[in-house]
Every structure is written in structure tokens, then in C-alpha cells.
Prior knowledge:
By secondary structure, the protein is mainly β. The protein has three helices and 18 strands. The protein folds into two domains: about 50-160, Ferric Hydroxamate Uptake Protein, Chain A, domain 1 (Beta Complex), CATH 2.170.130; about 170-290, no CATH class. The chain is globular.
Amino acid sequence: xxxxxxxxxxxxxxxxxxxxxxxxxxxxxxxxxxxxxxxxxxxxxxxxxxxxxxxxxxxxxxxxxxxxxxxxxxxxxxxxxxxxxxxxxxxxxxxxxxxxxxxxxxxxxxxxxxxxxxxxxxxxxxxxxxxxxxxxxxxxxxxxxxxxxxxxxxxxxxxxxxxxxxxxxxxxxxxxxxxxxxxxxxxxxxxxxxxxxxxxxxxxxxxxxxxxxxxxxxxxxxxxxxxxxxxxxxxxxxxxxxxxxxxxxxxxxxxxxxxxxxxxxxxxxxxxxxxxxxxxxxxxxxxxxxxxxx
Length: 294
């Protein structure tokens, strides 16, 4: 009798286990994989159809993971390293290939940067903060066939949010933190007519410095910048559209803290420099694109 009970319990357990495993399998197979559309190969296609290594960051990804500048991409995109060199110059390397001669301000990089399909050559233009983006595409490996000579290490495509003829929208937020941090963001979209739409956005970023210069009274490692962009869309038909974009970046801060070898101050956040320092950068980008359907 004990043997019969044991067999019945074992048989029941097998039935329950099989039923649960089938149910779980059915639930898992019913899940739908999100189809991500990219333009990494200069045509609209699904990310799953690409044969190369591509990392795509949507606007939601950037907000959730606090990705606001090019330097922050290093923390989320595999094989990518972004760093600032000599103040405002931004150096990008992918899989170890990038700005081999970063001390030369006019040297061409080996990782190309494209904003809405327009190649941006100057490393100083990468200083601006991300604002009102649709997505960022990071392409690893040589991309010379599609993106030209300066893409031996790879390419980074930044696609901004496009104007819409269908609806009006407004967005804004403000961030407050220690060291008197105040960061504001805003964007809005307005259809001006049946064929013309406007989209504008801006970011302001202001923060006190982390380090005090006891000799001059300056606070160093501060932040004080503004970024703004305006996009116009003209679309008289389904087969023709024209985009005009204007973007500016203006930064005026006290500069970075550099403690000398003979500095006797013991506090790591205090130093003595005989003269005041300042870092100023003004960058502007203008582009126009025309699309014709065949």
C-alpha cells in the first residue's frame, strides 16, 4: 500500500510539473519583441535586420539612465570611450580607434559624428548637451562605405526630434541639486500651417564649482551653459520635404581645478593659483536637408 501511494504521488507531481511548464512556455512565446527602426545604413530598417554591431539609445533610455552628454555614452555603449581633452575638445574612441593625434586641434578624427545626417567635423561641437532627441545610434567598426573617410573606428548618429504637422506639444522640466545646481529643459512643437511646422528646444545648466581658489576667490569646476535648437519643416506633399536646423551652444565658466606640486593647501577642494582662469566656448551649427520621394 505504501508503494502504491508513492507511485500515485509521483505521477501527480509529474502531471502538475508538465502542466506548469507548458503554461509558462505559452506565456513566454506570446511576448512581442519591440521592433526598433534605425537609419544606421542610411535607410530606414529594423535593428534586427542589421548585420553590424549597433547600439541604439532612445530618448526614454537617455532620460532613465541620465545620459546628457557625449561623455556619458561611455557608461552604456560597449566598446565606446568618450573623454574631454584640453578643456572643451571631446575625444571619441570605439574599440580603441579614434583621435590618434588628440593634441592637434585640426586633426581629423577616426570616429565620425553625424547630426541628422550632417557630418560634424569639429571636436569642439560635441560639447553641447543632448536635448530633445529621438535616438542615438552607435555603429562599431569601419563605416567608410557609407560614412566616408573619418569613420575607421565607427560612427555616431544623433537624430533629433523632428517637427510635426499633426499636433502641438510642449514639454519642460527643472532639476535642482546641491552646489546650487539648476538645470532647465523645454521643448515645443507648433504647426504653423498645413505645410510648415516649427520645433524649438533649449537647455540651461548652472552650478557652483567644487573647488575654491583661495588666492583669487574663484570657484572652479563650475558649470554655466545654454544650448538651443530650432527646426523648421516644409512639406507641401508626400514626396517632398525640406528641413532647416539652427543650433547654438554657449558656455562661460571659470575652468578646471589644477593643483600645483608646490601647493601647500591640505584640503583637496582648496588650492592657490595666482591668476584667474576662464573657459569660454561658442559653437553654432546650421544645416538644411531636402528629401524627395521617387
